[in-house]
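User: Fold this; tokens only.

Assistant: Input:
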Amino acid sequence: MANANRKIKWIGIDFGTTNSAAISFLDEGKSIGRYEHGDDQGTPFPSIVGIHKVTGEVITGREAKNSRIELSAQYEFFTSIKSIIDKEETYNVAGKKWTPVALATEILKGLKNEIKRKNVDAKSVVMAVPVGFSPKKRMKLREAAQNAGLTIETFISEPTAALVSNYAKMRMFKNVAVFDWGGGTLDVSILHIESGRVEEITTDGMNMAGDNIDKKIAEQMRKKYCLNKGVNKSFEEVDGKSRDRLIVKSEAAKIALSEGDEIASVLVPNYDNNGVFRDYIEYELFEELVQPEVEEAINCLNRAIKKARLNRANIDAVLCVGGSSRLKPFREKVIGIYGKEKVIYPKKVMWNIAEGAAIISMTNSAGGYGMNQDIGLILSNGSFYPLLKKGQRIPCKEKKINFASVTDEKSVRFLITDAEDPSKRTFEEPIVIDREGQGFMSEQFEVSCFVDPDLLLRFRIRSTEFMKKYLYMWTYNKLNIYYQIEGKGYERK
């Protein structure tokens, strides 16, 4: 157990679709201590909430995961909470309405309690989120964290956090593709490393990951079951408890087949009120089932590289993190394309993203991150007017500038992009904002923009003549950031 007198300095949290984890760094005088916080088994905290249908008792984490099949009749279980955190729907359990934010709060409470077990006082944290995590999702996650007694200092994209965690190994490379394929999302980031700095070049991603594959395997097993039993009942028509049980067992089979087994058994007791479900899936069928997802994942990687104006030959390494990146068919595919020497699977992969977030907490405290792209307007003559410049520290202070309409048209168009040189723009197309106007020189428009601690670019347009009538706020959540890793107060032993 950690010394109770140690002072906490930095905490990073990976709030995952399937599992959540935290890493803390403690200033121990002569060195920096690193501590993992997950569940009581020393593994990441399963992102599962169970609520008793009568009493309202809440169980989370490992307890909920291990009880999910056994207690499915007494408890309502919720998974993949991260993917629904921005939804306004509610779930009625034991006479209480539960929102996705309330469910996320329980996960973070459970994780915070595990942090406290090691006498670490968790208050301010850096939170890792998927690429393109929406402004609403960030707001809702902040709300859940606050309800759990945590303050989110800032966010970091999960792929960048993964690279930062493995910086000691990756620093020798120049251009790195980080492939982060977890339970709920696939995120790819192209990063550039130079002079102790990690720079985000571009990103891509999709909502296609391990949860989709688990369900797909379960549906296939269900088809086989129906054929053998002479049952005409779709997967969605099966009662929820039986569906959940089959998905849990399908996930276990997926892991076994990806770890080298040629065949994996699937056994579900009391399945669909029709006795024991007992079957198996062979690797050959598994490989066939996941082939479309593997191809989509590779296509996502290719798109990100293309958006960065690079090609495969320019990529020095592919860093693969997230549980789904360890699917055997994907491993074989990506190694076949890039070569074994370029494809890197780090150790303790389940802790990488939380660790990277904790490191960013350190560098952030030393002023170590900022804009890695210009942001500005394309004017009517085609020239570029910068509003925020590459290299500015984040958060960026609000910058205001006034523009006048230069045509007689009763509308005004603003074109937002990220570089003066079109060949260097990461915006595929300028962001277009159309506003009503009064015609040639009849009014002025105040344009302002800034970047907040959530790493969101906020862009406001309002008429100086009709301030109340014409007001528009646009938010962009895919900024490219740089992180100064070396020379900013962090030296990990």
